[in-house]
Amino acid sequence: MSSSEPVAPGSAAPHQPPYTYQPNQGYAPTEPIPTELANAAPHGVDEYLWEDSDDDVAYSDELDDDYLEGGEGNSGDITKQVNRQRQLQGAANNGAPTALPRSNAQKPKANNSNHVDDLDSELAKHARKLKTDLIIDDDDFWNGDDHTGEVKDKDKDKADRATNELVMDQRTRMILLKMISRGIVSEVHGAISTGKEANVYGAVLDPLDGTRPLHRAIKIYKTAILVFKDRERYITGEHRFKRGANKKNNREMVKQWAEKEFRNLKRLHAAGIPCPEPLELKSHVLVMEFLGNKRGYAYPRLRDATLSDEGTENPWRPVYIQLLGIMRRLFRVCNLVHADLSEYNILYDKNKLYIIDVSQSVEHEHPRALEFLRMDIKNVGDFFRRKGVDTLQDRAIFDFITAIDGPVEEPELSEAIERLYETRPSIQDAATEEVDVEVFRNQFIPRTLDEVYDMERDAKIPVEQLVYNSMLANTVSVKPEAAEEGSEEDSEDGTTADGDDRSEGSEIDQSIFDKGPPRGKKHEDKDEKRQHKQTVKEEKRAKRAEKIPKAKKKRIIATTTKKRK
């Protein structure tokens, strides 16, 4: 059958569509369209409204006048307007309302369980490309260093920074392990004492020769949590901390603090002051001599010490005198001020005192050295007064410690302190004495003449009453040549050179302040210049006479080099 011939309406095969093509007419139905298909709505409202067809145009012409004119109907939902028009058109054509369009079902925008699972599956593809154990060094990145392709391992965790007893972290354990491997100590035991800046642990060293084990003390400074936060006043002005404390790096600051105590202990031990001998320092770990008995028990602090009353005299008085002598030796021999001397930083055993904890000790040049010294005198005096000891005045102890002249060794120190007891003035009014002591503790003491506030006022006060009397020089240093010249002039004037009065109203020879002859060649005598030139010429002439000629010198050098070959 030719495709151009018309087909009867009922003769279409089951597998053929219900339309057939007719020339010059288009497609024509071969069988009637079912009612449910004819009345079926399109898949979407937008598809029905915006499809460019004749039905759409005809349908749009039949919209309400209110909608076309922008009346009240336009204020509603456009979907409702379209559905009402379709229902009216269906009722007019077939006698039944047209089926409503299907709802446009869309996926919710909110995440649900399926959406999360899809994200996990997508990210799982890239999980193997992520390297969580390798990172680029942040310091190099921020410093601008170009390390393309370089990565560094970073296996650090909170467990690496965690501390036990505020001092034992992973780095500290490695330092102790290296000390054990080097033979500095053999075992590390428990804590002996704990403080605000460090913990002290006991250790044992087993000698290779099989002798009795030696006890050691290991002082480990706190680096993670710094309880001791008042280091600034000890560091400011200290020449060993010229750049100041590194507040951004606690470990670096604590390392410098440990080095400072190591050097101070060296000074005390070299001066013969009883203290633990420093043995080894590594970062913030200090190994030193153990102050205790052979069984490993440390000596008690002075606060916890018990003294037996063997006689009528107070047993604490000799201890007080011994401590004053140590303070003077510490100031004059070691050039240090303890700055935290109290019954807590002194150990006692068999009538002997041991000084510990000298990390905060400062030198004389420190701006607050004299303030720290007065604080130490106050702490020592308050403790021994509670023990019933008749203590000296703070001013007398200060002058004794800072005096330039005086003994620095025993037993002369004890004898000098006993003389202070004998020569001290009697106390007439306790209230006035207490006021004077408090004024002295808070008074400004100049360390140099530049710090003297009013020299004219101090010149009218007797030297013995000045608060800085002990720091003034009692003699004037004179050069030997100046002294000889002064003695010759004094002999001509009829005075002696033994320190007698050389001028009226003064005990010091004023001739030492006279200006000498002017210096420079223009001030020299002409005859002396002529004589000096003649002497120099003769010396040069004598050297030229003994000089070897160059030709002879070359021959000698040539012959010596040939012999060597």
UniProtKB/TrEMBL annotation:
GO terms for molecular function: protein serine/threonine kinase activity. The gene is rio1. Residues 157-403 form the RIO kinase domain. Its EC number is 2.7.11.1. PROSITE patterns: RIO1. It comes from Podospora bellae-mahoneyi. Belongs to the protein kinase superfamily. RIO-type Ser/Thr kinase family. Its main location: cytoplasm. It catalyses: L-threonyl-[protein] + ATP = O-phospho-L-threonyl-[protein] + ADP + H(+); L-seryl-[protein] + ATP = O-phospho-L-seryl-[protein] + ADP + H(+). It comes from the Eukaryota. Residues 1-78, 92-117, 478-565 are annotated as: Disordered. Its cofactor is Mg(2+). It is found in: Cytoplasm. Gene3D superfamilies: Phosphorylase Kinase, domain 1, Transferase(Phosphotransferase) domain 1. Residues 522-549 have a biased composition (Basic and acidic residues). Residues 48-69, 483-495 have a biased composition (Acidic residues). This is Serine/threonine-protein kinase RIO1. Residues 550-565 have a biased composition (Basic residues). InterPro entries: Kinase-like_dom_sf (IPR011009), RIO-type_Ser/Thr_kinase (IPR051272), RIO_dom (IPR018934), RIO_kinase (IPR000687), RIO_kinase_CS (IPR018935), Ser/Thr_kinase_Rio1 (IPR017407). Keywords: ATP-binding, Cytoplasm, Hydrolase, Kinase, Magnesium, Metal-binding, Nucleotide-binding, Ribosome biogenesis, Serine/threonine-protein kinase, Transferase. Residues 92-114 have a biased composition (Polar residues).
